[in-house]
Amino acid sequence: MMMSFFDQFASPSFLGIPLIAIAIALPWILFPTPTSRWLNNRLITLQTWFINRFTNQLLLPLSAGGHKWALLFVSLMVFLITINMLGLLPYTFTPTTQLSLNMGFAVPLWLATVIIGMRNQPTVALGHLLPEGTPIPLIPVLIIIETISLFIRPLALGVRLTANLTAGHLLIQLIATAVFVLLPMMPTVAILTATVLFLLTLLEVAVAMIQAYVFVLLLSLYLQENV
Protein backbone atom coordinates (compact mmCIF):
# COMPACT_ATOMS: atom_id res chain seq x y z
CA MET A 1 0.00 0.00 0.00
CA MET A 2 2.81 2.36 0.86
CA MET A 3 4.52 1.70 -2.46
CA SER A 4 1.36 2.57 -4.38
CA PHE A 5 1.47 6.09 -2.94
CA PHE A 6 4.77 6.69 -4.74
CA ASP A 7 3.74 5.06 -8.00
CA GLN A 8 2.31 8.38 -9.16
CA PHE A 9 5.85 9.81 -9.30
CA ALA A 10 7.18 7.06 -11.59
CA SER A 11 7.80 8.22 -15.13
CA PRO A 12 5.07 6.63 -17.30
CA SER A 13 5.92 4.64 -20.41
CA PHE A 14 4.00 3.09 -23.27
CA LEU A 15 5.48 0.12 -25.16
CA GLY A 16 8.79 0.90 -23.51
CA ILE A 17 8.74 4.53 -24.70
CA PRO A 18 8.90 7.12 -21.86
CA LEU A 19 6.00 9.57 -22.03
CA ILE A 20 7.69 12.33 -20.05
CA ALA A 21 8.60 14.05 -23.33
CA ILE A 22 4.89 14.34 -24.18
CA ALA A 23 4.14 15.63 -20.68
CA ILE A 24 6.79 18.32 -21.12
CA ALA A 25 5.74 19.30 -24.67
CA LEU A 26 1.99 19.34 -24.01
CA PRO A 27 1.84 22.72 -22.17
CA TRP A 28 3.20 24.57 -25.20
CA ILE A 29 0.28 23.29 -27.29
CA LEU A 30 -2.27 24.62 -24.80
CA PHE A 31 -1.06 28.22 -24.82
CA PRO A 32 -3.34 30.58 -26.77
CA THR A 33 -1.70 32.20 -29.78
CA PRO A 34 -2.29 35.83 -30.77
CA THR A 35 -4.65 36.39 -33.65
CA SER A 36 -4.47 38.81 -36.58
CA ARG A 37 -7.58 40.67 -35.40
CA TRP A 38 -7.55 44.23 -34.11
CA LEU A 39 -8.98 43.14 -30.76
CA ASN A 40 -7.87 40.04 -28.87
CA ASN A 41 -10.23 37.78 -26.97
CA ARG A 42 -10.47 37.78 -23.19
CA LEU A 43 -8.09 34.85 -22.69
CA ILE A 44 -5.25 36.41 -24.69
CA THR A 45 -5.87 39.79 -23.04
CA LEU A 46 -5.66 38.18 -19.59
CA GLN A 47 -2.52 36.30 -20.56
CA THR A 48 -0.88 39.46 -21.88
CA TRP A 49 -1.77 41.40 -18.73
CA PHE A 50 -0.37 38.65 -16.50
CA ILE A 51 2.89 38.41 -18.45
CA ASN A 52 3.36 42.20 -18.45
CA ARG A 53 2.75 42.46 -14.70
CA PHE A 54 5.08 39.57 -13.95
CA THR A 55 7.80 40.93 -16.23
CA ASN A 56 7.66 44.39 -14.64
CA GLN A 57 7.78 42.92 -11.14
CA LEU A 58 10.62 40.53 -11.96
CA LEU A 59 12.88 42.98 -13.81
CA LEU A 60 12.35 45.89 -11.42
CA PRO A 61 15.53 45.28 -9.35
CA LEU A 62 17.64 44.28 -12.37
CA SER A 63 19.86 46.59 -14.36
CA ALA A 64 19.47 47.11 -18.10
CA GLY A 65 21.85 44.22 -18.80
CA GLY A 66 19.57 41.79 -16.99
CA HIS A 67 16.55 42.74 -19.11
CA LYS A 68 17.89 40.48 -21.86
CA TRP A 69 16.74 37.55 -19.73
CA ALA A 70 13.10 38.70 -19.69
CA LEU A 71 11.91 36.33 -22.43
CA LEU A 72 13.67 33.34 -20.87
CA PHE A 73 12.33 34.03 -17.37
CA VAL A 74 8.76 34.63 -18.52
CA SER A 75 8.78 31.52 -20.70
CA LEU A 76 10.14 29.40 -17.86
CA MET A 77 7.59 30.85 -15.43
CA VAL A 78 4.60 30.13 -17.69
CA PHE A 79 5.97 26.68 -18.52
CA LEU A 80 6.42 25.68 -14.87
CA ILE A 81 3.01 27.02 -13.85
CA THR A 82 1.31 25.10 -16.66
CA ILE A 83 3.10 21.83 -15.85
CA ASN A 84 2.36 22.17 -12.14
CA MET A 85 -1.31 22.96 -12.73
CA LEU A 86 -1.79 20.11 -15.21
CA GLY A 87 -0.25 17.74 -12.68
CA LEU A 88 -3.17 18.41 -10.30
CA LEU A 89 -5.64 16.88 -12.74
CA PRO A 90 -6.61 13.22 -12.22
CA TYR A 91 -4.66 10.54 -14.09
CA THR A 92 -1.88 12.95 -15.06
CA PHE A 93 1.86 12.97 -14.51
CA THR A 94 3.76 15.93 -13.08
CA PRO A 95 7.26 16.12 -14.62
CA THR A 96 8.38 18.69 -12.02
CA THR A 97 8.17 16.05 -9.28
CA GLN A 98 11.30 14.56 -10.87
CA LEU A 99 14.47 15.99 -9.33
CA SER A 100 16.44 15.27 -12.51
CA LEU A 101 14.18 17.56 -14.56
CA ASN A 102 14.29 20.39 -12.02
CA MET A 103 18.06 20.12 -11.75
CA GLY A 104 18.19 20.23 -15.54
CA PHE A 105 16.49 23.63 -15.33
CA ALA A 106 18.37 24.92 -12.28
CA VAL A 107 22.00 23.99 -12.98
CA PRO A 108 22.44 25.48 -16.50
CA LEU A 109 20.63 28.73 -15.62
CA TRP A 110 22.53 29.15 -12.35
CA LEU A 111 25.81 28.37 -14.12
CA ALA A 112 24.97 30.95 -16.80
CA THR A 113 24.54 33.66 -14.15
CA VAL A 114 27.87 32.72 -12.55
CA ILE A 115 29.70 32.73 -15.90
CA ILE A 116 28.21 36.13 -16.78
CA GLY A 117 29.40 37.53 -13.44
CA MET A 118 32.90 36.11 -13.84
CA ARG A 119 33.14 37.46 -17.40
CA ASN A 120 31.70 40.94 -16.91
CA GLN A 121 32.80 41.82 -13.38
CA PRO A 122 35.12 39.16 -11.93
CA THR A 123 36.20 41.32 -9.00
CA VAL A 124 32.64 41.89 -7.80
CA ALA A 125 31.69 38.26 -8.40
CA LEU A 126 34.63 36.99 -6.37
CA GLY A 127 33.98 39.68 -3.76
CA HIS A 128 30.72 37.94 -2.83
CA LEU A 129 32.80 35.10 -1.41
CA LEU A 130 34.26 37.37 1.27
CA PRO A 131 32.07 39.92 3.11
CA GLU A 132 33.61 43.33 3.76
CA GLY A 133 35.17 43.82 7.17
CA THR A 134 35.81 40.13 7.85
CA PRO A 135 38.50 39.49 10.51
CA ILE A 136 41.69 38.06 9.05
CA PRO A 137 41.57 34.72 10.96
CA LEU A 138 38.07 34.02 9.60
CA ILE A 139 38.89 34.73 5.94
CA PRO A 140 39.75 31.13 4.91
CA VAL A 141 36.73 29.69 6.73
CA LEU A 142 34.31 32.23 5.25
CA ILE A 143 35.62 31.71 1.72
CA ILE A 144 35.03 27.96 2.06
CA ILE A 145 31.53 28.50 3.50
CA GLU A 146 30.52 31.01 0.82
CA THR A 147 31.88 28.77 -1.94
CA ILE A 148 29.85 25.83 -0.63
CA SER A 149 26.74 28.00 -0.36
CA LEU A 150 27.29 29.16 -3.95
CA PHE A 151 27.39 25.59 -5.28
CA ILE A 152 24.39 24.57 -3.17
CA ARG A 153 22.14 27.15 -4.86
CA PRO A 154 21.12 25.03 -7.88
CA LEU A 155 20.56 22.03 -5.62
CA ALA A 156 18.31 24.13 -3.38
CA LEU A 157 16.36 25.35 -6.42
CA GLY A 158 15.68 21.85 -7.69
CA VAL A 159 15.01 20.24 -4.30
CA ARG A 160 12.64 23.03 -3.22
CA LEU A 161 10.43 22.65 -6.27
CA THR A 162 10.51 18.84 -6.15
CA ALA A 163 9.86 18.57 -2.41
CA ASN A 164 6.94 21.00 -2.33
CA LEU A 165 5.11 19.39 -5.24
CA THR A 166 5.84 15.84 -4.07
CA ALA A 167 4.64 16.55 -0.53
CA GLY A 168 1.45 18.17 -1.82
CA HIS A 169 0.62 15.26 -4.14
CA LEU A 170 1.29 12.72 -1.40
CA LEU A 171 -0.89 14.59 1.09
CA ILE A 172 -3.76 14.83 -1.39
CA GLN A 173 -3.55 11.10 -2.11
CA LEU A 174 -3.41 10.19 1.59
CA ILE A 175 -6.47 12.31 2.45
CA ALA A 176 -8.38 11.07 -0.61
CA THR A 177 -7.66 7.48 0.45
CA ALA A 178 -8.91 8.29 3.96
CA VAL A 179 -12.15 9.69 2.51
CA PHE A 180 -12.87 6.48 0.58
CA VAL A 181 -12.06 4.32 3.61
CA LEU A 182 -14.19 6.38 6.04
CA LEU A 183 -17.19 6.87 3.74
CA PRO A 184 -18.93 3.52 4.41
CA MET A 185 -18.09 3.52 8.14
CA MET A 186 -18.37 7.18 9.24
CA PRO A 187 -20.05 9.33 6.56
CA THR A 188 -19.95 12.51 8.66
CA VAL A 189 -16.21 12.23 9.26
CA ALA A 190 -15.72 11.40 5.58
CA ILE A 191 -17.58 14.56 4.52
CA LEU A 192 -15.45 16.68 6.86
CA THR A 193 -12.32 15.00 5.50
CA ALA A 194 -13.52 15.67 1.94
CA THR A 195 -13.92 19.34 2.86
CA VAL A 196 -10.33 19.38 4.09
CA LEU A 197 -9.31 17.68 0.83
CA PHE A 198 -11.05 20.39 -1.21
CA LEU A 199 -9.31 23.15 0.76
CA LEU A 200 -5.99 21.36 0.39
CA THR A 201 -6.50 21.13 -3.35
CA LEU A 202 -7.04 24.90 -3.50
CA LEU A 203 -3.86 25.31 -1.47
CA GLU A 204 -1.97 23.08 -3.89
CA VAL A 205 -3.13 25.23 -6.81
CA ALA A 206 -1.61 28.22 -5.03
CA VAL A 207 1.56 26.25 -4.22
CA ALA A 208 1.92 25.20 -7.87
CA MET A 209 1.88 28.84 -8.94
CA ILE A 210 3.98 30.18 -6.06
CA GLN A 211 6.73 27.58 -6.45
CA ALA A 212 7.09 28.38 -10.14
CA TYR A 213 7.31 32.09 -9.26
CA VAL A 214 9.87 31.45 -6.49
CA PHE A 215 12.01 29.35 -8.83
CA VAL A 216 12.23 32.14 -11.40
CA LEU A 217 12.52 34.87 -8.74
CA LEU A 218 15.57 33.23 -7.15
CA LEU A 219 17.18 32.88 -10.56
CA SER A 220 16.60 36.60 -11.13
CA LEU A 221 18.21 37.37 -7.74
CA TYR A 222 21.25 35.27 -8.68
CA LEU A 223 21.41 37.19 -11.95
CA GLN A 224 21.12 40.51 -10.10
CA GLU A 225 24.34 39.73 -8.20
CA ASN A 226 26.27 39.21 -11.44
CA VAL A 227 25.09 41.99 -13.77
From TrEMBL:
It catalyses: H(+)(in) = H(+)(out). It is a multi-pass membrane protein. The gene is ATP6. GO terms for molecular function: proton-transporting ATP synthase activity, rotational mechanism. Belongs to the ATPase A chain family. Keywords: ATP synthesis, CF(0), Hydrogen ion transport, Ion transport, Membrane, Mitochondrion, Mitochondrion inner membrane, Transmembrane, Transmembrane helix, Transport. The keyword Membrane applies. The chain crosses the membrane at residues 12-31, 69-89, 101-118, 138-159, 171-199, 205-223. It is found in: Mitochondrion inner membrane. InterPro entries: ATP_synth_F0_asu, ATP_synth_F0_asu_AS, ATP_synth_F0_asu_bact/mt, F0_ATP_A_sf. Component of the ATP synthase complex composed at least of ATP5F1A/subunit alpha, ATP5F1B/subunit beta, ATP5MC1/subunit c (homooctomer), MT-ATP6/subunit a, MT-ATP8/subunit 8, ATP5ME/subunit e, ATP5MF/subunit f, ATP5MG/subunit g, ATP5MK/subunit k, ATP5MJ/subunit j, ATP5F1C/subunit gamma, ATP5F1D/subunit delta, ATP5F1E/subunit epsilon, ATP5PF/subunit F6, ATP5PB/subunit b, ATP5PD/subunit d, ATP5PO/subunit OSCP. PROSITE patterns: ATPASE_A. This is ATP synthase subunit a. GO terms for cellular component: mitochondrial inner membrane; proton-transporting ATP synthase complex. It comes from the Eukaryota. It comes from Coreius guichenoti (Largemouth bronze gudgeon). The keyword Iron-sulfur does not apply.
